[in-house]
Amino acid sequence: MKVTAILLAAGQGTRMKSNLPKVLHAVAGKPMLWHALNAIQAATTEKPIVVVGHGAEAVTEYLETSAQTVLQEPQLGTGHAVMQAEPVLNGKTDLVVVCYGDMPLLRGETLQKLVETQKKNLGPISMLTVVADDPRGFGRIIRKADGTVAAIVEEYGATPEQLQIKELNVGGYCFDAKWLWGALKRIPKNPKKGEYYLTDAIELAVQDGLPVLAMPMDDREETIGVNTRIHLAEVEVAMRRRINCEHLLNGVTMPDPASVYIEAGVKIGKDTVVMPNTYLHGKTNIGEGNLLGPNTIIRDTQIGDSCKVLASVLEGAVLEDDVDMGPFARLRKGAHLGNHVHMGNFGEVKDSHLADGVKMGHFSYIGNAQIGANTNIGAGTITCNYDGEKKHATEIGADVFIGSDTMLVAPLKIGAGARTGAGAIVTKDVAEDTLVVGMPARAIKKLTRKPQK
Ligand code: UD1
Ligand code: CA
Questions:
Q1: N or C: more exposed end of the chain, with fewer CB within 10 A?
Q2: Which residues approach ligand 1 with their CB closer than 6 A?
Q3: Closest residue (by CA) to atom 13 of ligand 1?
Q4: Active-site annotation holds for 35
Q5: Which residue from 241, 299, 256, 246 is spatially nearest to 28, judged by alpha carbons?
Q6: What domains sit in the chain, N to C, each tagged with a CATH number?
């Protein structure tokens, strides 16, 4: 049976007061749209259709090939939005799941259950509902005596009695496709708002004498829709709690989960401890038995096992096993630290490989460099890799001892086992097992200044 989702994302999201389309606002580091599509994927068999309108270009660009888009222009309501998908979907699917792009907490399992409910339904619609004290402006569910749904009444049009109803329309539906395309054409224009409401399809099914099933959800949190940035913040907290709980259940320790920020999609192995005020972003994979934080930011980084990272910032880096870093260390893009590397306070590494056992205790900058195994980088060492125009490489062999405050003026090669004295300014290659010292600064030529722009 073919099941296809239509995700509605054409609305303006006026109350967000933003230049960014609402569905592109991030929750746990990923656009709301990503979360919605993730849930949809679990419950459908075909590529989803996303209805775009406001900010269509940005949304389409974000989607790339993950979904097909149809344009709704102008935006005349949720029923009108679904109608835009008919030309591409009619005859191509058995069931249609419709959900809204502003509900990032809705789970794939919930949509799966909804689809299963509809498969057993003799009528054309199954829908998600929730019983809650706070109605949040949601449509109210009117039930018939036999328990099937009679209608959805939108809040602005409800009578005082109807406003008391605690069962609410979540905004997730599964339709029999054949019935849906015909019904959409019969939805009347709402006399007050001039829009076509998808929710009016329920009454049409009832008029056809066909049952509409409601599937009440237990988890209220899942049903939070984002209309304002207050809702966005609520959803963020809920999503963070959900993500952290998954990691806790998988064997990750967090003494204070509420102060740990882990983006969706980050992987962490068991017995890793994530301390407070630690942020794990982007494409980050972390192995087992590590100690991360407190006060650490890690983005797009691969970490092996048994590493310690204290109060440091890592971006686009690789750490093998037993690396010990920080406090106050910084890894930038292309930093690769081998097994047992020690990197102490106030060091920065960029586009460089530090082989196994390299020690770099304090105040150093290593850029565009290859450093051999067990080499010691003395305090204050700098690879002078930039001449104002180009970056140059530094190659240091194994078992080298770089004395404190050495300036390594690239391009430069230092042979294995070599040694530099404290304060050396090294401008020429050094042979293996050789000691170099000195070279105080002295005038060697007149420079021609570049003209000011
Ligand atoms: C809708 C439901 C309401 C439900 C609530 C749950 C209708 C008429 N009402 O109300 O019963 O309780 O969601 O959150 O469906 N959209 C379009 N094109 C349009 C209009 C909207 O794509 O022309 C999209 C929006 O981008 C949004 C979604 O549909 O993602 C829902 O629209 P919104 O205006 O937020 O509906 P609600 O008033 O929240
Ligand atoms: Ca909404």
A1: C
A2: 8-11, 51, 53, 72, 75-78, 80-81, 100-102, 138-139, 152, 154, 168-169, 171, 197-199, 225
A3: 171
A4: no
A5: 241
A6: 3-223 (3.90.550.10), 253-446 (2.160.10.10)
